Amino acid sequence: MKDKIKISEIFYSIQGEGINAGIPSVFIRFFGCNLQCHFCDTKYAWNPTDTTYQELSTKEVVNKIMQFPLAKNLIFTGGEPALFQTAIRKIFKHLPKNQSFTLELETNGSIEIEDDFWDTINISPKLKNAGNLPYKIHAFDPNLTSKTWWKFVVEDKSDIPEILALQKKLTIPCSRILLMPLAKTKKEIEKNSPQIIEICKKFGFRFCPRLHIFVYSDKKAV
Ligand code: SF4
């Protein structure tokens, strides 16, 4: 359908990860991703056999966002939302001008970010442990640096050399790097977090909770 975009889900919850963890937010989850991480907890947002997405116009997306009037933080996620930057621009255009929103992007870092209207950009480059072919992390516009945080899913300490190499190559301050445990259930979070906290302490990285998994485990729309 012309001018319609595939949206996996739009829902109101709290941000579960990253620097804004805990903030009530509307999530706009696009359908489609250019990677296929084996641990992906949102395969329903890109798996070609999944048909649970909706095709919506940008105005319809805005109408759904406005069903949650208390939520002023909008999180564009996926899948890979950077594949849909033209649609995101249109969504912003249709947001009511008499209300202020903060805008947050969650991306795997493989696609250049074209706009500077973001308040928070969460880049989560996928390590070898995700099982993809190696891909280039985009050099980011220096204007976006102060809004950018780097999140890594860590299985164990064997992932650290890869993170340090990237940190050096892209000159990312350690304080901008967040590590989160590879986990799909509350049990796995509890088991894997202590070792990730120790790694954070050693390198000056920030530990990143995954509140939605801790509270709801592997559930949709949370
Ligand atoms: S980049 Fe994100 S959405 Fe895409 S497959 Fe990996 S974890 Fe899933």
**CATH level-two architecture:** Alpha-Beta Barrel
> Roughly what fraction of the amino acids lie in strands?
15-25%
* Class derived from helix and strand content: alpha/beta
Largest β-sheet summary: 9 strands, mixed
Mean pLDDT: 93
Order of helices and strands: EEEHEHEEEHEHEH
Could you characterize what this model shows?
The structure is a single chain. Helix content is 23%, strand content 22%. The chain is an alpha/beta fold. It has one domain (5-216): TIM Barrel (Alpha-Beta Barrel), CATH 3.20.20.70. The protein has a nine-stranded mixed sheet. The structure holds iron/sulfur cluster. Iron/sulfur cluster is lined by residues 33, 35-37, 40, 42, 46, 78-80, 108, 126. Iron/sulfur cluster binds at residues 33, 35-37, 40, 42, 46, 78-80, 108, 126.
Give me a quick take on this structure.
The chain is α/β, with parallel strands linked by helices and 222 residues long. It is 23% helix and 22% strand. The two termini are 28 Å apart.
Which keywords apply here?
TIM Barrel; globular; 5 helices; 222 residues; single chain; binds iron/sulfur cluster; alpha/beta
Topology record:
Blueprint lengths: L4 E10 L9 E7 L23 E3 L1 H8 L7 E5 L7 H10 L7 E6 L12 E4 L24 E7 L5 H10 L7 E5 L4 H18 L2 E2 L3 H6 L6
Parallel strand pairs: 2-4, 4-5, 5-6, 6-7, 7-8, 8-9
Antiparallel strand pairs: 1-2, 1-3
The protein binds iron/sulfur cluster (SF4).
